[in-house]
Design goal:
Blueprint: H1 8-22, E1 34-45, H2 52-62, E2 67-74, H3 78-87, E3 91-95, E4 107-114, E5 119-126, E6 132-134, E7 137-139, E8 149-155, E9 158-166, H4 173-192, E10 201-206, H5 215-220, H6 229-234, E11 247-251, E12 259-265, H7 282-288, E13 295-300, H8 304-313
Parallel strand pairs: 1-2, 9-10
Antiparallel strand pairs: 1-13, 2-4, 3-4, 5-8, 6-7, 8-9, 10-11, 12-13
């Protein structure tokens, strides 16, 4: 981390932020054995240039993980580059193109990762909804307002695909349900493909699901996706008040042992803005940091014994 040439005020804010991060209990990852993966909706990231303090705080949070899916990255990549400079020379980014309309909100999805722990395998693409032939054209019945973005990675001997989404808010929950169901169907079809890049698919992002009791949660889990046990047990809210489960991390349970018993959210807000941004009110704070908390999980990337067991069991 390169927190160089910062003011005393930013240094004091970083000390307070580090205390809040420590409350999350994020364990250290181990090379070729485990990685810490997170999803974070950083509100309108790049729409308006953030303060120097915000850049250092965001970098400090991102640096706790090895691989992060970022939602609401805007068309201007300037702030992303500023953050990567603070994180240092080992960090890389893979990101989608922005969608140039109100539904797409000029947003991208990005993966940033520490190349010492994670290798990008080469696949990066937007997910396309299924199409049927109608006359001379191939058309879809429904479109995602913001196309899910997926990419392939490897850590240790674990190859996997990450799919990150930002589901529309819409006028009501029913508007979201069709998009969410389509995500579940797409993942199910992808992992059943004969020549799929990898069947280990991790799905994450901002689903705008208020709780596990919502029909929206039933929609996303209808085709076999499950929440890792650590997140199921804690059931942490990902909004600042921690009472809504808008963000999710789910997976196809091919290797359940991959997901360790550690996960949760990083509460950088803690109900107190003053130590980070003196005199700032809450709405302004959400545009400097975010109105979402990062949701994270630790993944076991040493799966050799599981593969051997599968061979033995046929």
């Amino acid at each position: 981390m390169f927190h160089s040439k910062i003011s005393r005020e930013i240094a004091e804010g970083l000390v307070e932020l580090q205390k809040r991060i420590s409350e999350a209990g994020i364990p250290s990852s181990k090379l070729d054995e485990s990685i810490n993966v997170a999803t974070w909706n950083i509100r309108e990231f790049g729409k308006k240039k953030r303060s120097e303090a915000a850049m250092h705080y965001i970098a400090e949070i991102l640096g706790q993980f090895d691989l992060i899916g970022i939602v609401e990255l805007r068309d201007d990549l300037g702030d992303l580059k500023r953050v990567l400079n603070i994180l240092g020379p080992y960090w890389r980014a893979v990101y989608s193109d922005m969608i140039r309309d109100g539904g797409g909100n000029w947003e991208r999805i990005a993966y940033i990762y520490d190349k010492r722990a994670v290798v990008f395998n080469g696949l990066a693409a937007e997910a396309n909804p299924p199409r049927t032939k109608r006359g001379k054209e191939y058309l879809s019945d429904i479109s995602w307002w913001r196309s899910p973005y997926y990419a392939s990675f490897r850590s240790g001997n674990f190859d996997f695909v990450l799919l990150t989404v930002h589901i529309r808010w819409g006028e009501n929950e029913k508007d979201r349900e069709e998009e969410i169901s389509l995500v579940a169907e797409w993942v199910d079809a992808k992992r059943k493909e004969k020549n799929a890049e990898d069947k280990d698919i991790i799905v994450m992002g901002d689903f705008n699901i208020p709780s596990r009791k919502s029909p929206l949660f039933a929609a996303v889990t209808a085709r076999g996706l499950v929440i890792p046990a650590a997140l199921l047990k804690k059931d942490p809210g990902s909004n600042l008040e921690k009472n809504k489960r808008y963000d999710q991390i789910l997976h196809c349970p091919i290797y359940p042992e991959n997901f360790t018993n550690t996960g949760g959210v990083v509460d950088f807000y803690a109900g107190d803005i003053e130590p980070l941004f003196p005199g700032m009110e809450k709405t302004a704070f959400t545009y400097q940091m975010s109105d979402h908390l990062p949701l994270w999980i630790q993944i076991n990337t040493n799966i050799e014994s599981q593969r051997l067991d599968q061979i033995i069991q046929g």
